[in-house]
């Protein structure tokens, strides 16, 4: 079930041998055999496989994958081509268009961001159909916290975008050379409490430019 690039595999080798991860694998094998689980197994580590450790410039932390058919493909907030934009992603696009005065692509597939160095990492990498948070506290959060720690130890500055309390709980793991941007979650329940107007996309690009990095094309 572990299909992961060498860039990350070597860094996470110890984690994959720990009891919690072995227990997680047993749990997932049972879940995938009995229920509809998203994403498909080939896409569980799509975020890591799409953005090498050394290429990460921006980290956006999500909660868990979308839990309806044909949506999740291993990138936080992203859906596959041709799928209707979920409300949170609609709000993300609205904020980008307002912040940067650009028009976003009609597709909700954010692979184009991942290709530029945006790590779209959910804290839990799998979910049962129709049941949000159904794979919480099964071990994924231990692994994703380690991923954040590994990135944080890089001296090379990057941007961490934390929307909502779940993502913001990772802030203590992030060292001071990096830029941390916090706002409410972009879901319809909370977007009007401060997500709209947060200007995280322009702030992220300003930071990257300041540190001699190519900004992200957020279209």
Task: Give the SSE layout.
Blueprint: H1 6-16, H2 19-34, E1 37-38, H3 46-50, E2 58-62, H4 87-100, H5 111-114, E3 118-122, E4 127-128, H6 140-152, E5 159-163, H7 164-168, E6 179-183, H8 200-210
Parallel strand pairs: 2-3, 2-5, 5-6
Antiparallel strand pairs: 1-4
Describe it.
By secondary structure, the protein is of the alpha/beta class. The strands form 2 sheets. A 4-stranded parallel β-sheet has the order 3-2-5-6. The model has no long low-confidence stretch (mean pLDDT 96). The chain is globular, with a radius of gyration of 17 Å. Helix 7 links the parallel strand 5 and strand 6.
> What form results from the Cα inertia axes?
globular
Strand order, main sheet: write it out: 3-2-5-6
Rg over alpha carbons = 17 Å
SS-based class: alpha/beta
Number of helices: 8
**Which regions are unreliable across 5 or more consecutive residues at pLDDT < 50?**
none
How far apart the termini lie comes to: 33 Å
Oligomer: single chain
Strand content: 5-15%
> What is the succession of H and E elements?
HHEHEHHEEHEHEH
Largest sheet: 4 strands, parallel
Q: Percent of residues in helical segments? A: 25-40%
What are the salient characteristics of this protein?
219 residues, alpha/beta, 8 helices, 36% helix
In brief, what are we looking at here?
This protein is of the alpha/beta class.
């Amino acid at each position: 079930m572990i299909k992961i690039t060498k860039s990350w595999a070597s860094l996470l080798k110890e984690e994959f041998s720990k009891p919690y991860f072995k227990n997680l694998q047993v749990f997932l094998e049972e879940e995938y055999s009995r229920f509809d689980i998203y994403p498909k197994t080939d896409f569980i580590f799509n975020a890591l496989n799409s953005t090498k450790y050394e290429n990460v410039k921006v980290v956006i932390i999500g909660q868990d994958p979308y839990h309806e058919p044909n949506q999740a493909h291993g990138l936080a907030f992203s859906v596959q081509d041709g799928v209707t934009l979920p409300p949170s992603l609609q709000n993300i696009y609205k904020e980008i268009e307002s912040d940067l005065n650009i028009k976003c692509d009609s597709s909700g597939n954010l692979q184009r961001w991942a290709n530029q160095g945006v790590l779209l990492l959910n804290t839990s990498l799998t979910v049962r159909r129709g049941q949000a948070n159904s794979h919480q506290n099964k071990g994924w959060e231990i692994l994703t916290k380690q991923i954040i720690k590994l990135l944080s130890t890089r001296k090379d500055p990057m941007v961490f975008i934390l929307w909502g309390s779940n993502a913001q709980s990772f802030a203590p793991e992030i060292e001071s050379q990096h830029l941390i941007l916090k706002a409410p979650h972009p879901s319809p329940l909370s977007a009007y409490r401060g997500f709209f107007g947060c200007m995280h996309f322009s702030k992220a690009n300003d930071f990257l430019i300041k540190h001699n990095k190519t900004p992200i094309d957020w279209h």
